[in-house]
Amino acid sequence: MDGPLFWSFALLAAGLLLIIVEFFVPSGGVLAIASGLTLVGSIVVGFSVSPRWGMIMVVLVAVIVPVVLGMTVRLWPRTPMGRSIMARQPGDPLPDVLPDDDFHRKIKSLQGRVGVAASDMLPNGTIKIDGEKFDAVSSGGVIDRGQNVEVFRVDSGKLHVRATSRPVEENRGRIEPPGSPLDQPIEQLGIDSLEDPLA
């Protein structure tokens, strides 16, 4: 490899290195510009050797630069710098930002429950648990109406279900609202009788 050809490949390597460094060293784009100029320089030097080597350098830059960019973008969130900047890592579950009201608490409590598909799920549909209907999405393909389904995940207020052979458990975990204290016998309230306060 003669001198200009060596420098052409050296500039290519330097340009690729600058692309990688740009992701880890905040430079305000200076390193990116330097990388672009270096890569263009490698092509120009390649053409100074011969048109054939110039075209080879163009093809190498066109193929290698996107690969290096893709790998760097993919790996960057897993680096200490990427983790410190990004609040959420790829693959992390979404934070639950739904309101803490009765409806959403009830939706969350349905995880693990078994119900019945009240409609064909293609993949969205309706399921029925404890006589109430809920919108749900099938994660295991099409589910026919009337088939038992299991809620295996509750994500952002959406029920994710799959077909199951488990039987439907009616009213499991249902908490009946307490009645009015005025409707209950005084013995159940733990209050002493008021007929003889000195007894």
Automatic annotation (TrEMBL):
Annotated region described as Disordered, given as residue ranges = 164-199
Q: Which UniProt keywords apply?
A: Membrane, Transmembrane, Transmembrane helix
Pfam hit, one: NfeD
Subcellular location field: Membrane
Membrane-related topology note: Multi-pass membrane protein
GO CC term, one of those recorded: membrane
Q: Does the keyword Protein biosynthesis apply?
A: no
**Regions that span the bilayer:** 6-25, 30-49, 55-76
Q: Does the keyword Transmembrane helix apply?
A: yes
**Regions annotated as coiled coil:** none
Residues forming the NfeD-like C-terminal domain are: 109-162
PANTHER family on file = INNER MEMBRANE PROTEIN YBBJ, NODULATION COMPETITIVENESS PROTEIN NFED
Q: Under which name does UniProt file this protein?
A: NfeD-like C-terminal domain-containing protein
